[in-house]
Amino acid sequence: MDFIQTVFTSFVALIPVTLAQSLILAFVVLGIMIPFRTLNFPDLTSEGAFPLGGCVCGVLLASGASPLTALAVALIAGFLAGCCTAFIHLRFRIHTLLAGILMMTMLYSINLRIMGKSNLSVFGAPTVFDWAPFVQPGFPFAKIIVAGLIGAVIFILLNMFFKTEKGTAIRAVGANPDMAEAQGINVWVATIGGVGLASAFSATSGALMVQSQGFADVNMGLGILINGLAALMIGEAIVGKQTVLRQLAAPFVGAVVYYQLVSFCLAAGMPPPDLKLATGLFVLAMLALPSLKRSRGPAQARETIRE
Amino acid sequence: MLEIRSARKVFYKGQADEKVALDGLSLKLATGEFGVVIGSNGAGKSSMLNAISGALVLDSGQILINGDDVTDMPVHKRAIRLARVFQDPMKGTAASMTVAENMLLADLRSKKRTLRQGLNASRLATYKERLELLGLGLENRLDTRVELLSGGQRQSLSLIMAVGGSPDLLLLDEHTAALDPRTADIVMKATVRAVEALKLTTLMVTHNMQHAVDFGHSVIMLDAGKLRLEISGEEKAKVTVVDLIGHFSVKTDRMLLAS
């Protein structure tokens, strides 16, 4: 009984901090979802775009730029990184995953070049979270409000965009590129723009994270992709993915639930080094589930027919 | 109007398995003309359609639509002028999107896509009207995802999508070949109705000799990447399935002699 109570109190105490963190990381999950689900372009760039956004933001904050400028420049840098990945895939016909690996490997050096060292403290620099209404700056609630507001605005804008004529065209490229092309849609522009946009969100997440934690680190992207995928799977399991609205809500819902789950596991005494193994196994299980279900159903039926 | 001027395309050039797909093919299709293309497998029918749509880049030769040279235009630019229905029902529609969204994509084929809302009430009403003509009940399933439709329904949808914007040129690539006879008949009838009503310049590839006899203003027979035979006007009206098959067998005899 005592154990459960300790676990519960430490978990509850961490809820606001975890919520703030998950709302910031929801943008990476969004940056993973857009290429993966909307463009049918499995993309790994986010693993490099997230620290890219962080490093760009860190350097700008350290040199005295306003937090909003730092955020904007990080966003543009992420956009360009995503464009490069899509271009590598389209121009040289390199597999999307390999193009992503190439890009994130190259970004590691670029990130080091940008910062000049492997980590940079920007503690005390002004952040976008200082402008939160109603609450004292510095508390998790300030982060929850600011990250939540940005998230809400992006969610509403994207939901509107994907229902416009241009947005529908971009979704068509993911659904059937040959058909999209035959309907007069420029597949190159749609893919480069879409993957660029997704990486811009990943970089924004990195920039917000740096402003939140007060330092930038070249290794801050390590494992972000698998965490994001796990969050996406959870979100899709909860809200589904049948409509544009649900598909867009999945990253946000998934991020919030996933990071609370992780926090609970840690509070319950799971050793932190095991976290990645557990996350990996979870993603594997989620991805394998449909094929396991299928092989149990029709496969047997086929065998009976053969007999 | 469609004009192909001495189109040439060689696959695997200079290699042991070099294959001449189009061998100086020239062809003219007048505005409003419905041409039916026949020919054995490997005669160059698909290569010709791909070359017209832009999916295949020619080694030499020209393609003109309504007098404009489109030879160097990419697929998505040519789409402003031409529409295509593929043999595979999966190819012509976006499976994970709804019937209405697919109609919207086709509707915008030759227009500039804006940041305005895609599906609005007036568009939905138009799509409903167009789909009603098919008599398949698709007009009541505008919000259904296309992957839930049958092959015949998908192909009918592809057809309605293709003829919707009255394209300068309609390409039909064995578009009833993958359907059961009854559905094939429905789709074929809908095709003829649309082509006649809108006076579309149409090029239809088929392996069905009865279709070649029954429909279209002219029969075009391809062989080894060249135009072998063109029957039009009075002669086309009198042609029978046996006549057409006769032309095939001549070719087969020659092939036998040559080998």
TrEMBL record, chain A:
Origin: domain of life: Bacteria
GO cellular component, one term: plasma membrane
TM segment ranges: 12-36, 71-90, 97-116, 141-162, 187-208, 220-239, 248-269, 275-292
GO molecular function: transmembrane transporter activity
Keywords of the record: Cell membrane, Membrane, Transmembrane, Transmembrane helix
Pfam families reported in the protein's UniProt record: BPD_transp_2 (PF02653)
Membrane topology: Multi-pass membrane protein
Subcellular location(s) of the protein: Cell membrane
CDD domains in UniProt: TM_PBP1_branched-chain-AA_like
Protein name per Swiss-Prot or TrEMBL: ABC transport system permease protein
Automatic annotation (TrEMBL), chain B:
Keyword Cell division recorded: no
Keyword Ligase listed: no
SUPFAM superfamilies documented for this protein: P-loop containing nucleoside triphosphate hydrolases
Pfam families reported for this sequence: ABC_tran
Keywords from the named record: ATP-binding, Nucleotide-binding
SMART domains recorded: AAA
Superkingdom as given in the UniProt entry: Bacteria
Domain spans labelled ABC transporter: 2-249
Stored InterPro entries: AAA+_ATPase (IPR003593), ABC_transporter-like_ATP-bd (IPR003439), ABC_transpr_LolD-like (IPR015854), P-loop_NTPase (IPR027417)
Gene Ontology MF annotations: ATP binding
Protein name: ABC transporter ATP-binding protein
Organism: Aminobacter carboxidus
Classification lineage: Bacteria, Pseudomonadati, Pseudomonadota, Alphaproteobacteria, Hyphomicrobiales
